Amino acid sequence: MQNSQNRTSQSALSATPSSDKISYHKSLLAFESNLIDKLSYIDGSFTVAASQPFLTPAVDRAENVWMITFDCDGRLDPQLAIEFTNLCGGADRMCTIDGDKLTPDTLNFYAKIDLTVNLNDDKRDVSLFVGQGANKFGPVWWLGGLPLANANATILLPFVNQAEAVVQVLQVTNRDGDLFQLTPWL
C-alpha cells in the first residue's frame, strides 16, 4: 500500500484495504440511543497513517446500540490529529473521554459516519467523525463534527426545522470509554 501523494496519512480512497493475513488490532466503538434509526460508515473515509494496513470498518446493531468495528494496525500520528480537528471544525465541535483535553495530540485513525436520527417520525441525517488516539491507559475515542457544540464540556447535538427553530437537542455523553450515548437534553 504505497502513498503516491507523499502525505503522512492516507484515506481509504487512495489505498486498498488489505486482504493479507495480518494480525489486526480490533477496536470497537458503540453509539447508544433509541433515537438512532441507522448508523453507517462512509465508504472511503477511513484514514490511517501512511503504509498502515487496515480492513473496511463493519457496522452492527444490537437493539439500541450500534457498533463499528475498526481493524487496522494503527500508529499514532500527529498529522492525523490535525486533519481530524480541522474536519470537525475545531475544539468546540469535539468531545472525548480523555479528561479535559480539547483536541487530540495524535490519532491512530479516523473515519466519517452518518447517523439517521428519528425525531417523532422526522428522520434527520447527521455526518460526524470518529477518531481513535491513546493515552497511558489505552485507546481514547474522539467524536466531532460541525453539527456538535461543545459548551463548557456539555456536548450538544441540536436539530432545527425549516424556520430554524430548535425542535430537539440531544446531549452526547461517553460511557465506559468506548460508547457514546445520545439522550434528549432538557
Key traits:
single chain; 186 residues; mainly beta; globular; disordered N terminus
What does this entry show, briefly?
The protein has 186 residues and is mainly beta. The protein contains one helix and 14 strands.
Care to describe what's here?
The chain is mostly beta strands. The protein has one domain. Helices cover 6% and strands 53% of the residues. The strands form 2 sheets. Strands 1, 3, 4, 7, 8, 9 and 10 form a 7-stranded antiparallel sheet that branches. Strand 11 (149-151) and strand 12 (154-160) form a beta hairpin. The chain is globular. The termini are far apart.
Mean pLDDT across residues = 85
The number of helices is 1
Given as residue ranges, the uncertain stretches (5+ residues, pLDDT < 50) are 1-8, 11-22
Number of domains: 1
Query: Level of helix content?
Result: under 10%
Q: What percentage of the residues does DSSP assign to strands (E)?
A: over 45%
> How can the largest sheet be summarized?
7 strands, antiparallel
Q: Give the termini distance in whole angstroms.
A: 48 Å
- Output the structural class: mainly beta
H/E element sequence: EEEEEEHEEEEEEEE
Radius of gyration: 16 Å
Which overall shape is indicated by the principal axes computed on the Cα atoms?
globular
Give the strand tally: 14
